[in-house]
Structure formats: structure tokens, C-alpha cells
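Possible race condition, two jobs.
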Amino acid sequence: MTGTAIEVEGLVKRFGERVAVDNVSMHIRSGEISGFLGPNGSGKTTMIRVMCGLLKPDAGRGTVLGYDLQRDGARIRREIGYMTQHFSLYKDLTVAENLTFVAGLYGLHPLHRHVTEAMAEFGLTARRDQLAGTLSGGWQQRLSLAACIIHRPRLLLLDEPTAGVDPKARREFWQEIHAMTERGITVLVATHFMDEAERCHRVHYISFGRLVASGTVQEVIDRAGLSTFLVEGEKIAEAEHLLTAMAGVDQIAAFGDALHVVGRDEAVLRQAVEQVTAATGTRMSPTETSLEDAFIRLIGEAGGGPP
């Protein structure tokens, strides 16, 4: 992976008095999958629309595929594929008609060949005459992705593309994404699923318009500086109640019949967990800190609220 696909510095986007993107600087390498994470309302979609050239930033500077964000919005839009969070094609047109329409917008010739190749790539050939509105969520997702890549973009910007689809469709989608990067396409995918973030080469977490963390998954976890213990047994409800009042315990999360107990000071945390497990007859063991645990910690460091 060499070169830079996206480089932004000090990016700001306001809507009236509300700051949706607050001084964000970010670097995305060519040919990698970058996860863009954050809760709903965190500014992910606004950031993506700025990088698409659909919105102009109010401050800051940057380039996308070498084009200037402020001056070259039209050129950027020709070189990227943008998949919105909600299905945005025509539901009363067939699969083939939708793809023909999109291919025509990009001036592709011959239309038939580009449409046929896109349908074949995403397994849509058998559904070419089916109305888009009658497709399942997973098949609508495939159609949207086919429309995004029909003009062979160098960069894909995907805004929560797996929302509302089943686990099988999500897995197949990610297989397609990794196959695209093997062909040199750069992908920035917005998501709030931690398991999807772990499929990315690098992750960028935004909270209330501010960039909280960037790096590989392991780098982000290491930066949080947390230790985690697993507590198991029949009395985990009692253990959880006791742990909430213990020094050194920053987070407690239930996972089935177990608790993940997280803290910054491993010695103090271990002492607290040992005391509670001894009192409740539960068991403890060290475990790996999750990406979700790390992000919750980093959000806390950033203030945990809007600017």
C-alpha cells in the first residue's frame, strides 16, 4: 500500500451554529480499507459528504485522490463511488434499468457491456428484470455496490452500507470489499459495528465531530492503556453490583454469563476483581481488551459530549 488517497487537515463543517465536523485531520493510504466509526450523529456522514465533494468545508484543507476539496468537487465525484446509508436507486426500475441509468450518467460506452459486467460481478444477472423495490435488503445492497463501481472508481466511500442486512449478507459484502482492495481500490467505510471495524486495515473514530483515535485496531487498543478481566459464575449479577463501587473499575459489560471488567491500573483492578470473586464465589481470568472497550475509554478522554 503506497501513496495517499485522502489527506485532510483542520477540516471544519458547520450548519448554522452547530459544528458537525470539528478540526478533523486524517490520512488514508491508497489501497487500504479504512473504518470510519462513531455513534449516530457523530459527524461521519457529513465528513463523507465533504470528502465526496458534495459539501464544501468551512475551514481547513485537503485532497482526495490528489484533487483539492475546495476547488475540485466535480472531478472528485467522477473518480469515486459513494454508497449512501439508505437505498437510493429507483425502486420502480429493474436491476438492469437502474444500472443502465447510472452507466449513462457516467457516459460509459457501450452501456450494455458495462451493465452486463456489473451484474455478473455481483451475482445480479438472474435478477436483471426484477424491480429493485422487491429485492431483499442484501440484494439491494449488492445492487447499490454494483452501481457504485460500474465506472471503475479508485475510491469507494460507503456510509453504513450493512445497516439492516442479515449476517450472511454482511459477510459476503466484506468479502467483496476485500476483493476490491486487492485490485487497488481504496475503501472508506462508515460503520458503528465493532466486528466490521476489526476487518479494516486502519480505523478512525469520530465522536461529536471530533476525531478521537486513528490507527490499526491494535494501536487503538494499546493507546487506551486498559486491562480487562473476565468474571464468570452463577452470581455475576451480585458481582457486578459489588464491582460498580470498587476502585480501579472503569467499565463493566455483560457478555452472556460473564462480565468484562475493565480498568486503567491493572494492579488496582486485579485487587478489586479478586476481592469480589472471593466474596461471590465467581471466577476471574485475564482476557484481551476489546476495541469497543478502548473506544469507550477514548471517548471519555475526549470529554464524552458535544463541543
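Job #2 (started ~2 s after job #1):
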Amino acid sequence: MLYAGIDAGSRTVKVVFLNARGKAILAQGLVDQGVHQEALARHLFDRLLREKKLDQSRIRKVVATGYGRNQIGFAHATVTEITCQAAGVRFRRPRARTIVDIGGQDSKFIQLDADGSVRDFAMNDRCAAGTGRFLEVTAGRLGMDLSALGEVAQTSRDPARISSMCVVFAETEIVGLLAAGVKPSDIAAGVQRSIAQRIAGMAGRNIAGSVCFTGGVALVPGMVQVLESALKVPVRVVPDPQLTGALGAALLARTGR
């Protein structure tokens, strides 16, 4: 039997297939999000089955999660991304007790009990200033690709102070900094630090055990270091950090939860 998880996120759609025992990932992949979420998910789902020569008739259950989970009509069930992130991270890092997940449109701070269940969480989904969207806006204003932003930020010796609490006003602030002659590297570093400080504000003093970093922003160079500085604890990036939600959904499909 096979079990599948689909994470219909705000920026990408992810799919993970697990074997019957839930111990081996048979296939995984992602595509950019779009208007027709179910069609994108179905296309990726079918493509992975073909590429890995997996028999669709062996699929026992499909669980969807993420921003667009209710749009995935061929899923058998839906589960919140908080629960799926917890399951996916614990599969990768069994001793994890804290999760920082920063995606395209929201960020989450999740605390786990010793058994891996969610004890508490905080979520920022009302302002893009603490998410990957802020990095995208910054990269656009600085005239560079998002992939280069982190590398440029690491050359900074004097990160700019970004004080605006809203990404719209922050973008105006960035324009002002550029006009004042502030280096792009210092602006990029300032934005990274601003995002990390927002996460630290969500966390407060409630940081316990091993801290794991997930989401697309975990792949941006330098973000781990600024997050460690803001939280004042070591932070580890989970393998395939964009796929932990889909992985968790597949694991929950197997356990029937």
C-alpha cells in the first residue's frame, strides 16, 4: 500500500508518497502554485507516480494540508498545516521540540511535547513582513533574484534597521534607504534580521529543546545564522524543508489520524 500527502501552500504545491510502513519516502516533488490548485496538484501527483513507476491502485489514502487544502478534491481528508508540520519534522528530527516554519505568506512557531504532539503554537498570517514575501519584495526592489539575496546579505557589515511593521510601508522604507545611499547588502541583511526578530517576538521566552527550521525561507543563505542570533539558540534546517508539511500529511494518512 501507498500513502500520499499534498501540501497546497501559498507559493508551491508539494507531494510526498510513503510506503506501507511509513518509513521510506518513495517519491516527492513540488511545483509553483497557481490559480488552478487541484489541477496542479493532480499533475504533480500523476507525474511522480509515472516517474517512480508507482501503481496508483495501491494508494490507500491521500491527505491534503496547507493554504489550499480544501481545493484538493481527490484527497480523502484534510489536516491543518500545524499538525502536519509537527509530524513531518519529528520524522526527520525525532528529538525536535520547537519548529520555526517560514513560508511565502505566513510564519509559524510551534512547540512540541516529548511525544511529538503539538503543545502550543503562534502564527503570523496577517502581515507579510515576517514571511518569504518580504524577501521577494526586497529582492525586486534591489534588482536581484531571490536566490542571490541571501548571498548579498552575508557581505554586509552594517545591516540597515527596518522599523516598519507592514511590508507595504517597509518597501517604502527600503526605497528611502536606497535613495540615502545605503548599500543593497546592508538592506538585504536588515530585512533578514527583521524577519528573524519577528520570529523571536512570536517565540517570547518559550524556546525548548532542539529548534528546527522549515519552509522555503530556510533555504535562503544566511537565514539560519540571523535566526540563531535572534533566538539565541542553535537552529537546524530540516532536510527538504519545503516538504515537511506534505511529508507529515502522508504520515498522518498512514496512521489514519
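Residues 196 and 229 are 8 Å apart (CA to CA).
Logs attached separately.
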